[in-house]
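Q:
Got a chain?
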Amino acid sequence: METSRMSLSRYSAMLTASLLATACASTPSQAPLSGRWQADDSKVQLQLKDGKLSASAGCNRLFGPASVEGGRLVVGNLAGTMMMCAPEEMAAEDALKKLLASRPQVEQKDGRLLLKGDGRTLALNAMPALDGGKTRFIYVQGKTAPCVGVAPMQCLQVREDKNAPWQHHYGQIEGFTPEAGLNYRLRIKEFDVANPPADAPSRRWVLDMVVESEVVKP
């Protein structure tokens, strides 16, 4: 009789443990954070996809593993390009590295991403998705030039070959704001625009990555 009670007790404990394990396994996990964001008051860009992070403060591209755990962004060891840029860009890059290393709190709301850590809050806005676009590499001048579409306007100066003459681009590059005194090489995504207005381009360009920037000699 005593043996039967012990067996029943042991069976009950095993059943309870099994039910708890099943319940935990069936609990939906938090959806991984995924998307592209850009700060509205700086050059900081950040992308999260498939457990990988890519980030930049306007100079080098940083990349490495990342996940959201307990409402915090946990970033692994970051690798990156090794360009030398303007002192203010290098300072912004160091600040971004410190923020990412601090396991910042993550809040996402209304298309905005907030990272809170290292004594500050970085606010970023959602950028357009890049799925399905054609990848192109282009050079862009930091200054625009007068051009005429339907009316006189200012056009970006672009080219795909570094030795080719500059050409007018009559649209914008979404997510990119040029700075006078710098030239850029960009990786962009190109999308066809169905039935564009008469004064608008038939293709839409979206910034994917600033590959490099260089100071233009006077």
Summary: The chain has a mean pLDDT of 82.
